[in-house]
Design a protein that fits this description.
The complex is a heterodimer of chains A (329) and B (337). Chain A is mostly helical and 329 residues long. Chain A has two domains: 50 residues, no CATH class; 246 residues, MetI-like fold (Orthogonal Bundle). Chain A is built from 14 helices and two strands; from the N terminus they run ααααββαααααααααα. In chain A, helix 9 packs across helix 10 and helix 11 packs antiparallel against helix 14. Chain A starts with 16 loop residues before the first helix and ends with a helix. The relative contact order of chain A is 0.14. Chain B is of the alpha/beta class and 337 residues long. Chain B contains 13 helices and eleven strands. In chain B, strands 2-1-3-11-4-8-6-7 form an eight-stranded mixed beta sheet. In chain B, strand 9 and strand 10 form a beta hairpin. Classes of the chains: A mainly alpha (329), B alpha/beta (337). At the A-B interface, helix 2, strand 1, helix 7 and helix 13 of A face helix 3, strand 7 and helix 9 of B.
Chain lengths: 329, 337
């Protein structure tokens, strides 16, 4: 918008009244202030959210202290509350979801960005974006009525026959449980990974590809060794967006996870996630301590997301520092 | 706290913008009686156009909380408030039973067409995880002539906090000391075994999909969706299949020993034909209402509900209050001042 050439950048603003007036007139300052306010609103919302969770969970925090984090009992009658079973269920289902969705999503994104004809790629991407807009309760219903019976009669017995010697695939087969919840989550988060990764891959400069091809790389080698590493940060970003969605998913998970707070090594066993127990028990929670414990669960989920995101950032920083020479040379 | 206060302001804002001549009354609470409450409030508004009762079915817990925070004029709950909660309130709250509900044992047992009979011992054992096979003597003993499989029982319970769970656990607490000491009575409990389904429809879905399973659903839901359910042995020793009449009979049986504040559990009630897993659902009304017009409107509604409103029960598959309870409530309305 501003056409007045200026050499003053954000770091070296001169703050005299005349200078300020000039910048106001040119529109730069107005734009800067407005966008600053928007940015602050988002920060403020997050701070408010944490503040409310913190204040309203005071009773449970004082009563249970840190033991809330590793206690496994959740008994509203006796007023004893612990979060570990829910943290376990949340982490296991999200990890399963990522384990399935990341290879699938990344593979699809590479095909769509690098190998498919542009028209086909655009049309398929449109359909995939539609998937991301399907309400989660629909995924839950599909899970209950289609996936669960197949899991119970076909997939889980087959897994039990093949891998029953490992602790992961033992115990009674109900159809619902951690594995099914992970599968439903995978289906729900894969569109995010595909959609964002494809955009990132498309944004990789053509030089990168051509340089690799010029050095004698095959098309696949150029994609895998030159294009994908270049887009790595963006791809990781898509994975963390997907992870955030998986951690907080409520309806679809509660419909297929079994809603039983247990910690079992078997993926067939029913479990319970933080978001699911909040949705289930919040409306009928009467006692103050009970309510406060539920809110503390919300705080735990927030912290969990915070820590995982932090680790993810760290991972990006570390891998970028090590690999950038190869990828961007 | 701040959030709740904000909500309170929002409700106030809505109140002040309403036309001055209309008497707006806000209420919130239990979801189980919501269909009949909304019909009542709607009908009442047609007869008395100047009274408008807005009811939010946010759950019993939410109803009690909003009443304590004074963001609603009255609340509604599937379980009576505890002594502690009443003490905490800081103002006197009266309970008024409105209709009755019941929970029934429903099951999916392939190959068994006969209707099963359950003793209290069998139900407690199954939900405690002690009776694990369908052909256990605890079940088989009450069902002579039925060929029960030797399969594992899959227990299914509600995962969301619910009045139905309250009735169910209240009943098992009364018939099993083991359950009373280990699990207890509440809208959500620490289940010893089983899978959780969200809502009646979640239970019904799991039951349908899981062979050899047993769960409990609201009587109304079972009737409206034609779910098969078993009969339960009552305190008089007879096996009763839940019906609206059986539920009202349980209330009549308990009416004699009804305390003046109506906070009574009628599970395992005495009397012939009484279905043992039944309960009242209550309106929670402050004993002191400052606004005279509002107070009169609420009292008038209660009178109407006990006389005319009760006739709406059966078409909607709710069990109505027995005469004894209606008479007692009519007297209690005078306590609202």
């Amino acid at each position: 918008m501003a056409t007045v050439p200026t050499t003053v950048d954000a770091a070296g603003l001169s703050w005299g009244p005349r200078a300020l007036l000039r910048r106001l007139r040119s529109g730069d300052e107005v734009a800067r202030l407005i966008t600053l306010i928007f940015a602050l609103v988002v920060v403020l919302l997050t701070v408010l959210l944490v503040y409310q969770l913190w204040v309203n969970s005071a009773e449970a925090r004082h009563r249970f202290g840190l033991s809330f984090l590793w206690n496994t009992t959740w008994d509203p009658v006796a007023n004893r509350f612990g979060a570990l079973t829910f943290v376990y269920g949340t982490l296991v289902t999200s990890a399963l979801g990522l384990l399935i969705a990341v290879p699938l999503g990344l593979g699809a994104a590479i095909f769509l960005a690098e190998l498919a004809p542009r028209r086909l790629s655009d049309n398929l991407t449109f359909l995939i974006d539609l998937l991301a807009a399907v309400p989660s309760v629909i995924y839950g219903l599909l899970g209950v009525f289609i996936l669960v019976p197949i899991m119970r009669t076909e997939i889980q017995p087959a897994l039990k026959r093949a891998f029953g010697f490992t602790p992961l695939f033992q115990g009674p087969v109900y159809g619902i449980g951690l594995l099914t919840a992970g599968l439903v989550l995978a289906v729900m988060i894969v569109p995010f990974i595909i959609s964002v990764s494809r955009e990132v891959l498309l944004a990789v400069p053509g030089d990168q590809r051509e340089a690799a091809l010029a050095l004698g790389a095959t098309r696949w080698e150029a994609t895998w060794k030159a294009v994908v590493p270049y887009a790595r940060t963006g791809i990781m970003g898509s994975v963390f967006l997907a992870l955030a969605r998986a951690l907080g998913e409520t309806m679809a998970v509660t419909m297929v996870i079994g809603n039983n707070p247990t910690i079992s090594s078997s993926l067939f066993s029913p479990g319970y996630s933080i978001a699911a127990v909040l949705a289930n028990e919040f409306s009928e929670a009467t006692g103050n301590l009970y309510l406060s414990a539920l809110i503390e669960l919300g705080l735990v989920l927030f912290l969990l997301t915070f820590v995982l995101n932090g680790l993810a950032r760290l991972l990006i920083v570390l891998t970028t520092a090590r690999g950038s020479g190869v990828a961007q040379a | 706290m701040t959030l709740r206060r904000l909500l309170g302001f929002a409700v106030l804002a809505v109140l002040f913008t309403a036309p001055a001549w209309a008497q707006n009354i806000n209420a919130a609470g239990a979801t189980f009686p919501y269909p009949i409450y909304s019909k009542w409030f709607d009908e009442y508004h047609k007869v008395y156009p100047n009274v408008q009762i807005n009811y939010q079915s946010i759950g019993s817990g939410g109803g009690i909380r909003q009443l304590l925070d004074k963001t609603v004029d009255f609340g509604a709950s599937d379980g009576p408030m505890s002594d502690d909660q009443l003490k905490q309130a800081g103002f006197k709250i009266l309970h008024f039973p409105t209709v009755l509900g019941a929970a029934v044992p429903s099951y999916n047992l392939p190959g068994v067409t006969a209707e099963l009979k359950f003793t209290p011992e069998a139900l407690a054992g199954i939900f405690l995880g002690k009776v694990t096979k369908w052909n256990d003597p605890a079940i088989a003993g009450a069902n002579p002539g039925v060929k029960l499989p030797a399969d594992d029982i899959v227990v299914i319970h509600r995962s969301d906090g619910s009045g139905t769970t309250y009735i169910w656990t209240d009943y098992i607490s009364k018939v099993s000391d083991d359950w009373k000491s280990k699990v207890g009575t509440n809208t959500s409990v620490n289940w010893p075994v089983g899978l959780g389904g969200k809502g009646n429809e979640g239970i019904a879905g799991l039951l349908k999909q899981t062979p050899d399973s047993i769960g409990y659903v609201e009587l109304i839901y079972a009737i409206q969706n034609n779910l098969p359910y078993g009969s339960v042995k009552n305190a008089a020793g007879e096996f009763v299949k839940a019906s609206l009449a059986g539920v009202s009979a349980a209330a009549a049986g308990a009416a004699k020993s009804m305390p003046d504040d109506f906070r009574v559990s009628i599970t395992n009630a005495p009397g012939k034909g009484a279905y043992p897993i039944s309960s009242f659902t209550w309106l929670l009304i402050p004993a002191q209402i400052q606004d005279a017009a509002k107070r009169d409107a609420i009292k008038d509604f209660l009178h109407w509900m006990l006389a005319t409103g009760q006739q709406d029960c059966e078409p909607l598959a709710y069990a109505k209050l027995p005469k004894e309870v209606v008479a007692k409530e009519e007297k209690a309305i005078a306590m609202i001042q």
